[in-house]
Amino acid sequence: MNRRQFLQAAALAGLAVGSGASAQANAPTAELEEVSIAEMQRRMQSGEWSARWLVERYIERIEAIDRAGPRINSVVETNPDALAIADALDRERRAGHLRGPLHGIPILIKDNIDTADRMETTAGSLALVGAAKPSRDAFIVERLRAAGAVILGKTNLSEWANFRSTRSTSGWSARGGQTRNPYALDRNPCGSSSGSGAAVAANLCAAAVGTETDGSIVCPSSTNGIVGIKPTLGLISRSGIIPIAHSQDTAGPMARTVTDAVILLGAMVGMDARDPTTRAAQGRAFSDYTRLLDPQGLRGARVGVVRKFFGFNDAVDKLMNEALDVMKRLGAVIVDPAEIATAGKFDDSELEVLLYEFKHDLNRYLAERRVGPPVRTLAELIEFNERNREREMPYFGQELFVRAQAKGTLADPAYRRALAKNHRLARALGIDATMRRHRLDCLIAPTNGPAWTTDLVNGDHYTGGSSTPAAVAGYPSISVPAGFVFGLPVGISFFGTAWSEPKLIRIAYSFEQATRHRRPPRLLASLDL
């Protein structure tokens, strides 16, 4: 069950696309399609390409594919300084100074990640459009700039990271409108990092950064046919990221391959005095995760199958069983089933924690940013949405905001009990117990089902997903393409205990290299069934 499903369940318990196909091969700047970061570096080093050339070509693709033509609508803003940044990095290259594998590489970031530049940081809300800019970059943006990445722009998202209503539509924000799935434009891109997932899939950037509280990296990665890494809580700093809940929030890389995803991951990790949770990553983080990439990574690995997250779609089950056959051929030991006994038993307490922490964390973020009128608190944000109902709430409301505002402080016994329950059931009695009992290296399950048709009237139509245990535990999860159902991509999730990224990366890479399920979208108006 992903975050949307438990929000819907808890709430119930407690309360125009053109016709015809447009093949991506016919799109402008087709030479950028499916190009890896390593290939970009090779061509820049040879002098064939430059950082400026890459930025210019990606902006052309964004204009032709995202804003015109198919209109994926995944990029809410391009960086007006991107060309100047690229020029400076090209000069460094000519002078013999290379910062690393991201030198000159265009990266998109989600529109809830602070940048102290001429771009906006709004979480998709009109309340923050034109507001006071952040006084400094988010820590991960500082790291990316230091690594030589070109911040190409901001991606659209589900407004307020999909924590405003239980009946919202993923990929919609008042600022950015509705993002579309590039595999079928009438289908949904899923999760709050929807713009990042769609942009990477459509080759509008080299890679992108998303954020997740429960499912918002892995779900859009799955439904957009890419790789997404949701790291252990604390591996990547959250400072300068508009929050939902500090006990679960994390940023993470989204890319077309495991290799590109881990290159981006390595650039973002680091100790941050503004985020004390990063202290726990000391001695556990890698600056170069590519050294973990091993095509034989599944040989001898003990892989547990969480069958509880199967059964919602016969075609998805077939893909997962085919994936298990591949893993067996690669030498993995399959433990089937390896159930998480506590799965589904902490959905209500998860929502309780998120409501408390959202109020506390958002109020603190707004105060630190000194946004000023019209919104300095969650209460003022609720009032802003009511005053601007026609623009902010044309399709769904803000009942989660209202419920969060009614909560007390983090000292409340109800919050402390809920958080303790979450950690006990998701960690000690959940993932940890399952992996210890079966002596596992990882757990696997379908990330979620194929993309549903976007429905602004009724909201999202999730059918199934497996993101919640790792999300609530604060443990890592990697979604990798596992195949297609009626032309729509479906991902498989590899997840495990805290700080198990090295094992998961080896296993995910081995599976990816053996299967190579990733294929670019055709930008169909609708499925051709």
Query: What is the N-to-C succession of helices and strands?
Result: HHHEHEHEHEEHEHEEHEHEHHHHHEHEEH
Radius of gyration: 21 Å
Helix content: 25-40%
Largest sheet features: 11 strands, mixed
Amount of beta strand: 5-15%
Q: What class, by secondary structure content?
A: alpha/beta
Q: Label the overall shape.
A: globular
Distance between the amino and carboxyl termini: 28 Å
Order of strands, main sheet, comes to 1-3-2-6-8-7-12-13-11-9-10
Annotation, overall tally of beta strands: 13
Count of helical stretches: 17
Let me know the average pLDDT: 94
Please give a structural write-up.
This protein has 529 residues and is an alpha/beta fold. Helix content is 37%, strand content 12%. The strands form 2 sheets. An 11-stranded mixed sheet has the order 1-3-2-6-8-7-12-13-11-9-10. A two-stranded antiparallel ribbon has the order 4-5. Helix 5 links the parallel strand 2 and strand 3. Helix 11 crosses helix 14. It is globular and about 55 Å long.
List keywords for this structure.
alpha/beta; 11-stranded mixed sheet; globular; two-stranded antiparallel ribbon; 17 helices
Short description:
The protein contains 17 helices and 13 strands.
Question: What are the SSEs and their pairings?
Answer:
Layout: H1 3-14, H2 37-46, H3 51-66, E1 75-78, H4 82-94, E2 106-110, H5 139-146, E3 150-155, H6 159-162, E4 172-173, E5 177-178, H7 194-201, E6 207-212, H8 218-223, E7 227-230, E8 250-255, H9 258-268, E9 302-305, H10 314-329, E10 333-335, H11 347-369, H12 378-387, H13 389-392, H14 399-405, H15 413-438, E11 442-446, H16 468-473, E12 477-485, E13 488-495, H17 501-515
Parallel strand pairs: 2-3, 2-6, 9-10, 9-11
Antiparallel strand pairs: 1-3, 4-5, 6-8, 7-8, 7-12, 11-13, 12-13
Helix pairs in contact: 1-11, 3-4, 11-14, 11-15
